[in-house]
């Protein structure tokens, strides 16, 4: 244990050293502010929903419990989901591993240290944002202090179980898969994650909660809601314990805590035993990189881009090859894929047809909401790929600096490389979801055009701010987006998209209304509509140009201190 | 070929390079020596355009690095001290990348790579990912890439680190033959024997200041040592500086 603690030390120290930097405190305040408002938002929503349930005669409590069990199930899958990714990168891909493995410390101790690290990494955020949900339960149900202690008692083993299960899975997968290529590990993990995602959806059956009409009678609806959950799932133990604590049944609650704790302890020891046997072996295996020759498919990209000038072509080809061969990107692609699947899934189950208010107003609102959601997906994809794309150059950035091309050209190359795939992605997304929503042709064209302008703006913000706040020494460049620059990127992009949507929504509403009333638009209205659209266009142009300039200037200054 | 005028670089309070004036003429092999932290790498990075000077200017073949960086950089082949490359490309792909970057024609590329890869004994491994290369192999690849566009000026920071004896000998000969063809080479090194063997002229830098320049004989004269080698000159000159 002591050795494992020593191994954790460097991380603590570097965290502390960072903490002393001056400008960090401002960032910290901004982060904390945003974090707290999220937290408060979750609390407020949850509180209101529970209060609403309380007012529903008869089935209020059943609904609240059902919601709690769903929250815990989602919580548990989220934990597993993030632990798999963090433990894979912490155990096999982090940069200090070659150093750590050379130390006179047995493999399972290294495993333990890395495991503790990834448990904390993967669960703290989930825990922090789950707590307001539980607290609102405590307040609405007027639970005693024992309930609040019980929250900690149930969440702790749940995190441990999720993390231990994931690390065992990762340990085994790396050993079992024959190739020395981590890429296949990722493909495999992706499959596992898809299964988890699917199972969560199936276990939840969210549509049943939304649509009581689908059940023949209220009785069968109630039966369905109060049907026992799956007794072997760790999230069920947590649910049983919390539910008992809510009613004040301490002994039943503690029994379930004990159940979770013993399972957690068992899993920790098993994982250490497994690590002793196979961790180092797996690690050495994962270190061997692809030594196989690549010549078969050479020159194909070269030919494809031969219309570009030499320096431009060289960076485009390098960028694409590097991206495709970097396994770390694969996990990200998968995450994005999951995001998009969930996004479109939501639309396919939305009961729009049955909606009682079938007004133009609602349709209008929904299609703008859809543009906003698509833009949100766009922001997150940009944050994952385009934003870190400057930091990812890392120590090899000297090549760019010594190259006979201006920094500006380099940044614009990056811009276009990310623009095309993102544009295709967001257009497909908006067309598909708009078809599912059955929007009017006018809204379809408007959304397509809007995203056509929004996408370059967001990409430019991503590249520009990524260049303005780069981190060339980052262990994992994809994480740079969690820093200050990433935060600025998210805020400005959200504000930009919000502004454009607001500027468009007003005029569109006027046009619709005048269409319904069969009136002609007045000159003033016409002027206002044109002005509004023109402003949106202007903002988009600025969003494309300004961030890139800013990024170029800051990046220059970075080197030329 | 290189003119450094009042070149200075400050990192906060540290004067890494302090009012350095130096000219290196065409076809000269200039050696740059000095203790750790003297400012060699910083000077080289300014010559290569990786770092802008706090003050002063870098003129490459009559072109001011601050005014026309792209034009100046095109004349330079830079070999940094640590071989950071695009690990996900193969050696051959990296050479193609450099060739495109410096707009080397297709024919010249095919002709030169074959020759250079043979010279650096990389031909068998050229189609493997760079991440699977050893340290010395990466160093060789960087050198190959720097030579590919036949630069007028080669700027190299500690060329022999990580090379095996055969590699060192090959690079020595290569440098001499390049210089004979009119290429200029600016090289920093800790290997005094190397400097003594191949350099036409040597500059000694300490604490960011150029404390002496000249041929070996001139340096000996400055240090007022009769029959000593460069090592003793080096100790004498840098020691004096410290005791001042
Ligand atoms: N990025 C930087 N930030 C702050 N100080 C720096 C930076 N780079 C170099 N220095 C400082 O500048 C001085 C000169 O460093 P430089 O790397 O040029 O030395 P060097 O002669 O190449 O040494 P070595 O022989 O060890 O390679 C040192 O004092 C160093 O600490
Ligand atoms: Mg150096």
Determine the number of helices of chain A (DSSP H or I, runs of at least 4 residues).
20
Summed up, the domain count of chain B is 2
**Whole-number average pLDDT of chain A?**
80
The fold-level CATH name of the largest domain in chain B is Rossmann fold
Biggest chain pair interface: A-B, 35 and 37 residues
How much helix, percentage-wise, in residues of chain A? over 70%
Task: Give a short overview.
The complex is a heterodimer of chains A (561) and B (244). With 561 residues, chain A is mostly helical. Chain A has 20 helices and no strands.
Task: Please give a handful of descriptors for the protein shown.
heterodimer; A: mainly alpha; 2 domains; B: alpha/beta; Rossmann fold; 6-stranded mixed β-sheet; globular; binds adenosine-5'-triphosphate
Describe the structure.
The complex is a heterodimer of chains A (561) and B (244). Chain A has 561 residues and is mainly α. Chain A folds into two domains: 24-289, no CATH class; 326-338 and 353-561, no CATH class. Helices cover 80% and strands 0% of the residues of chain A. Chain A has helices at residues 2-19, 24-55, 60-93, 97-102, 107-140, 145-176, 182-204, 206-210, 218-226, 234-247, 250-287, 300-304, 310-325, 327-349, 360-384, 397-402, 407-437, 441-468, 484-517, 523-559. In chain A, α3 runs antiparallel to α7 (182-204) and α18 (441-468) packs antiparallel against α19. Chain A is globular, with a radius of gyration of 26 Å. The two termini of chain A are 45 Å apart. Chain B is an alpha/beta fold and 244 residues long. Chain B folds into two domains: 1-75 and 156-244, Rossmann fold, CATH 3.40.50.300; 83-150, no CATH class. Chain B is 40% helix and 25% strand. In chain B, strands 6-7-8-3-9-10 form a six-stranded mixed sheet, with helices on both faces. In chain B, α8 (216-223) packs across α9. Chain B starts with a strand and ends with a helix. The chains are: A mainly alpha (561), B alpha/beta (244). The A-B interface holds A 289-295, 298, 302, 309-311, 313-315, 317-318, 321-322, 325-326, 394-396, 398-399, 401-406, 559-561 and B 11, 48-52, 69-71, 73-74, 76, 78, 80, 82, 84-90, 92-93, 96-103, 127-129, 131-132.
